[in-house]
Design brief:
103 residues; mainly alpha; two-stranded antiparallel sheet; rod-shaped
């Protein structure tokens, strides 16, 4: 492998809090699913057991402290919209049924 290809394969992550650079795949670093920022386990106060549990689960969505409130708000808004849509569709279905009976 030449030097350019070797450089292209090099990936480093910088913790958004402590600004420390992590260079290997075994670094204890998490990526926020929303902002895509990287945070070391030490800075987000995760012990080894907690980090291992979070990183092992592919269905777990981790968000940094800056993004979590916005993500939770978005989830609540989505639930509210789904509820209102279901109520609206129920009204539409009721009106369609009553109009069919008239015909």
């Amino acid at each position: 492998m030449d030097k350019e290809a070797e450089k292209a394969m090099f990936v480093a992550w910088t913790c958004e809090i402590c600004r420390r650079e992590f260079k290997d795949d075994h670094s204890r670093i998490l990526e926020c699913e929303h902002c895509e920022g990287h945070f070391c386990a030490k800075c987000v106060k995760l012990n080894d057991t907690e980090y291992d549990m979070i990183s092992a689960r592919k269905d777990f969505h981790w968000h940094c402290v800056g993004c979590e409130p916005r993500v939770l708000q978005s989830i609540q808004i989505e639930k509210d919209v789904e509820k209102k849509l279901a109520e609206f569709m129920a009204k539409v279905e009721y009106k369609m049924k009553t109009r069919r009976k008239r015909l």
